[in-house]
From TrEMBL:
This is D-alanyl-D-alanine carboxypeptidase family protein. It holds the Pfam family VanY. GO terms for molecular function: carboxypeptidase activity. GO terms for biological process: proteolysis. The keyword Metal-binding does not apply. Residues 221-348 form the D-alanyl-D-alanine carboxypeptidase-like core domain.
């Protein structure tokens, strides 16, 4: 049975509605057997070229690698060419970057490379191309662990207007005015963004945030994007003979308040904190999280759900639809929650693939954020 999937967006840059709408189907680069078109909206980053390549792959039924190397260049060679072209575009040795201080270095996250200069650097990745980095914005980026942190790679050159310079990154923006500290807007801080990170150290802001674009799946509310993705996930699972039901989605602040208060009065605060999020701290309040169950309810909301067909299927395939298992086994010291193989969190296909292939299993580790084993003392 072929498996429909959402292709990981291949290249960043243009963010027009046209490009958003281009994402119809795509052969996933890790799944050359995918032949069933799936119409879905994924992240904003996708190019005409990658759409054409994916379409060609579908027509030929072959692996992306067969058509993806027109210049037969390695990633390092592509990077070197792109970095040098960007350096020349900026003025070469006459640019603000100054002279190179070393050779190109590769091996960064997601296949990235960089070259440093006297006054900054140029960093390249397959998804974002070659972008320059310098000055106060670069210093601020560094404090967030460069591309390894929550900002990711820059997606454009710094641009200045009205005395403010800003640079866009994969998941945020840094702005700077002379004589003032840089300001950093992180997608992980914004509950409206699918990359938002909510944990026991990071409550929603505002704490009574409520999403507006809710849709129902199996009687559970989710924001539109994860709702559409969950339906595709369910269809793909069904094609493999596996039923995946949604049993809990969006929970308003007030509902979480009542739930948590009930646990607290029944079991005490320590036990309540172990089994329930405090109001304002629950991923379910973002409308991006869903608890799933098997058709027969076996091992519902228990760790043994991982061994059911639905749990096993989700663990293996959820990332293809933009979900991650948010509270994996053995990570409670990082996430603050015991293993919850039923709790899926929508982060978008791009980020889900990145986390899945990163070698770490939590958003905290992926973004180099502090572990959040418990609530701060009040
Ligand atoms: Zn949950």
């Amino acid at each position: 049975m072929s498996k429909p999937c959402l292709c990981r967006p291949a290249r960043t840059g243009l963010r027009t509605e046209v490009h958003r709408r281009l994402i119809t189907v795509t052969a996933c680069r890790d799944r050359a057997t995918a032949k069933t078109p799936v119409t879905a909206r994924t992240g904003p980053r996708f190019s005409v070229l990658s759409a054409a390549v994916c379409a060609l792959v579908l027509i030929l039924g072959g692996a992306p690698a067969a058509v993806a190397s027109p210049a037969a260049q390695t990633g390092a060679e592509r990077a070197e060419t792109a970095i040098d072209r960007e350096y020349q575009r900026l003025g070469g040795t006459d640019s603000g970057l100054g002279r190179p201080t070393g050779a190109e270095t590769c091996g960064l996250r997601d296949g990235g490379c960089y070259r440093n200069y006297e006054h900054g650097g140029i960093v390249w990745s397959p998804a974002t191309g070659a972008q320059p980095s310098w000055g106060a914005i670069r210093e601020a980026w560094a404090t967030y662990s460069f591309e390894n942190g929550p900002l990711g790679y820059p997606v454009a050159s710094p641009a200045c207007s009205g005395g403010t310079c800003s640079q866009s990154f994969q998941r945020g923006t840094i702005s700077w005015r002379p004589a003032e500290p840089a300001t950093v807007d992180l997608d992980i801080d914004n509950p409206k963004n699918t990359a938002v990170v909510v944990n026991k150290e990071r409550p929603l802001e505002p704490e009574d945030y409520a999403p507006e674009d809710l849709l129902s799946v199996d009687g559970q509310l989710l924001r539109a994007e994860p709702a559409e993705a969950l339906i595709l996930l369910q269809q793909a699972a069904a094609a493999d003979g596996v039923t995946v039901r949604a049993i809990s989605g969006y929970r308003p602040f007030e509902t979480q308040f009542e739930l948590y208060s009930g646990y607290t009065s029944q079991y005490g605060q320590e036990q309540a904190d172990a089994i329930s999020a405090r109001p304002g701290y629950s991923e379910h309040q973002t409308g991006l999280a869903v608890d799933i169950a098997a058709a027969d309810g076996a091992c519902s909301l228990q760790a043994c759900f991982a061994d059911t067909p639905a749990g096993a299927w989700a663990a293996e395939n959820a990332h293809r639809f933009g979900f991650i298992v948010r509270y994996p086994a053995g990570a409670s010291a990082v996430t603050g929650y015991a293993y919850e193989p039923w709790h899926l969190r929508f982060v978008g296909v791009d980020l889900a693939f990145a986390v899945h292939s990163s070698g770490v299993s939590t958003l905290e580790e992926y973004f180099h954020l502090p572990a959040a084993p418990g609530y701060p003392a009040r």
